[in-house]
Automatic annotation (TrEMBL), chain B:
This is IBH1-like N-terminal domain-containing protein. It comes from the Eukaryota. It comes from Carya illinoinensis. Residues 11-76 form the IBH1-like N-terminal domain. Keywords: Transcription, Transcription regulation.
Amino acid sequence: MEPNLGTIVRSISIGPNREETGLESLQFREEIHRLMTVPPENGSSFTELLQLPETQAMELLHSAHSDEVVPVPLSGEPLHGINDDHKSYLPSFNGNLTFPSNKVLIERAAKFSVFASGEHSPETSSVPSDSSANLEKVKSEPAETDSNPNSSQLLVSDPAVNIKNQRSEKRKEREKKGKGCTKKSKIEISQDAEKLPYVHVRARRGQATDSHSLAERARREKINARMKLLQELVPGCSKTFAMQISGTALVLDEIINHVQSLQRQVELLSMRLATVNPRVDFNLDSLFAPESGSLADSNFHSMVSPLLWPEIPFNGNRQQHQQQWNFDALHRPLWGREEDNHTFITMENSLLNYESANSASLHSNQLKMEL
Amino acid sequence: MISKGATWNSNSCRIKFARRFVSALLHMRNRNTRPGSLTIEGVRTHTQRIKIAAYLSMAQAVGSRRAWSRAVLSKHGSRARRHSRMGRSSVGLKKTRVIRSYPPGELGQAKKLRQLVPGGKTMDMCSLLEETAHYIKCLATQVKVMQTLADNFSK
């Protein structure tokens, strides 16, 4: 008996990973038929799992033809009455789809076995131990909520919330069990027209179950995680107040400065490109013709901003070290604007030198490589 | 040879942006045949156009996955222009009517950040930070590509 059951549960656990549900239901049906022939002596039989009499299970089996419909709309009603009346499970179950996606069934089966351990023999608790880690996770969650005062209602509605949680967790790769998850489950539940009267919060061990504090905590943790990410992105920010939460003001300042500097760089570069563009042709060879030097000269003379000038000597450096994406050179003109005006004339000379010194092929190669 | 520190993700972003941006520049160049660009005003308008083209091409390379790219596209996109020309200003009206009360819990820097990041006015703090992170990454690639272009075309 046990090995059969174990195989069933294992096949169910493998089920969600496969795509063809027809095949699953077929195997399922065969195995259940095998089980049905054996009279249910101990409490770990499959029919006891479902907490249904044998005949009703057979009826379920026979009406399990459609396998595409998700069982969500039907799970609202039966879940409420599961601890009280098992018979109420059947009518609604029969009315809609009977064997829904096996994932749901697994979870429900695990639920029942765990809850049934209080009533039936402890053999039922052996069933979830056979199953995959998925089920174990499912089992641990109700274990936590057992400590809640309103346990019965919570436990009852757990499967639905669990399913949603697992789906949302898998989709959004969340591992927290805070209010954030239940928030999403709340949304999904409302979208699927779940008929639960109120939302159940899953509390973490050793923390207050107050809904407001949970929400606050989840939100704060999300924000802190993102701030850490941002800190890593912004250069020169990871050293200042690395892991402190109290340094958020400084971190935010750094972030704002960085974004502003990047936007300023974009503006400067677009200005440079604007002066480069109207020059002769756009293909690379003629760009390096000697007459382009004089055009660039006149363009630059007409330019108002002195900001471009500090950038030019650094072009020579980049010429040779084309692999480096260093921006210290660019940072300097942005923050040292005031003292660069006197270098106006010298930059002009260096620009002329650069224009004449480089070959066309080298530049085209560089462009291809660097892009 | 692309720089070694770049992952596949940033590379594709960079290449997509570079391609779009260069084509936009070419397009603008072909349109702007008159030599009026030697004046300061001409250069300024050209600069503005190039800047908008850069942001637009970056947003297009990112797609509609990010809130900030959607905001940029809706602000500068051709569809938005078509809408405004047709007189259907419902989108703009909606935006001005929604007066968002900034959450009092955050500091004044959040307000600044919202102004900096496109589309940040209608986001809560959490998503604002996420969008900022992605925006910074994309801005950095944008600057790199434009820098290379400017370097190579000014030689």
